[in-house]
Amino acid sequence: MAEILAHSFHAVEPGAAVKKYLHDTPLPPSKRVFALGLGKASCAMTQALAEEITLADALVITKHASPLTVQPVTVIEGNHPIPGRDSHYAGTAAIKFLSQLTKDDLLICLISGGGSALMIAPRIPLEDLQSITSALLACGARIDEINTLRRHLDKLKGGGVASMANGAQIYSLLLSDVAGDALEAIASGPTAPDPTTLADAISILEKYRLKEIIPASILPALTETPKPDNPIFRRVHNSIIASNAIALHAARARAEILGYQTQIIESNLEGEAHVRGRNVALLLKELLGELKRPFCLLAGGETTVTIRGNGKGGRNQELALAAVDILAGLKDVMLVSIATDGEDGPTDAAGAFVTGETAQRAESLGMFAAAHLLNNDAYPYFAEIDHLIKTGPSGTNVNDLVICLAF
């Protein structure tokens, strides 16, 4: 399993992806080149860019800063997953940074997951933005739905960066952390046109019954965003340079080299984590009677958790927890669910793993998966039996991976 995961992560290493793009794609001539890095992988992406191109200036907005040899550069750590004062400061700095551009310049944007929260220029008070973000996360809204609201409430999202670039040519290199790789959803699309409307944003509030409980400032502040036919996008080039699909296929290739029959069972994994975890485990159990061992099942995407309890965990841990009772007693099987950025929810774990012995081991300590699942309390369950996966921040971010082995 470790070798499969390592190969998958290596395939979406941000710096290597940036350099490959630059070697394959000639950039247009320009007076000056600027870099705006946004997201969890922006330090590695900006460093790689600076090793290939001379930069007039660079601004990097990230969650965990790492040392850079880029000069000149400003690095700001924003707040995630709930935007805060540092995120607001980052947004102000980004607007000032963009103001120096001219139509003769080239702006290279290096965008990765987490950017929606790390940089904000909200049309509502910060406290109200925090309130609606928390409500959307708690009710199980999908990330694309959350980002739809964000785009209509923020000056820098939904093409906002493109609109503030003073006509400069823009090349955006993106690591996709959203299902389907929709450009407008990655970091809420700062350089992408927004196909959603105000009506779409309001329908999301209605879907989750939030319209009557959100702060009063939100509905009046919802603003239409630039659409694909807007002239500001004529000089914008958006390119996805790493994605969950690339990670999935790299994992599949390594598993096959190791002798596993492989099958990608889902490349757009969405929905409630506990439902999807149960379904994946049931499929693994079913295929034990149909496929010859060893075999490997792979899935990628991003699930959600509707918070009903007061426990601790993340979507990957919850997905794994839902598989515990189904896999109980099965010989030589393993299910791993892991966040590629190394951070699963508000925890220090990237995810968790389950084997056929997990349930028995936990129950011997008085812990039952079903009870912990009801309380959204996966972290303590897996911590007690040493089944958490802790990698620390990985430097990349392309959604989650679920890998099942029968060996």
Count of separate DSSP helical elements: 16
CATH superfamily placement of the largest domain:
Glycerate kinase, MOFRL-like N-terminal domain
Structure classification? alpha/beta
Percentage of residues assigned to helices: 25-40%
Order of helices and strands: HHEHEEHEHHHHEHHEHEHEHEEHHHEE
- Kindly give the count of domains: 2
How confident is the prediction overall: mean pLDDT? 96
Give your account of this protein's structure:
It is a single chain. With 407 residues, the chain is α/β, with parallel strands linked by helices. It has 2 domains: 31-242, Glycerate kinase, MOFRL-like N-terminal domain (Rossmann fold); 245-406, glycerate kinase, domain 1. It is 37% helix and 18% strand. The chain contains 16 helices and 12 strands. The chain has helices spanning 2-11, 14-24, 42-50, 85-99, 115-118, 126-138, 143-151, 160-163, 198-207, 218-221, 244-257, 273-287, 315-327, 358-363, 369-374, 378-384; strands spanning 33-38, 57-62, 74-77, 106-111, 169-175, 236-242, 261-269, 295-301, 333-339, 351-355, 388-389, 400-406. The strands form 2 sheets. The chain has a 6-stranded parallel sheet with strand order 3-2-1-4-5-6, with helices on both faces. A 6-stranded mixed sheet has the order 7-8-12-9-10-11, with helices on both faces. α3 (42-50) links the parallel β1 and β2. α13 crosses α16 (378-384). The longest helix is centred in the first third of the chain and has 15 residues, at 85-99. The protein is globular, with a radius of gyration of 22 Å. It starts with a helix and ends with a strand. The relative contact order is 0.13.
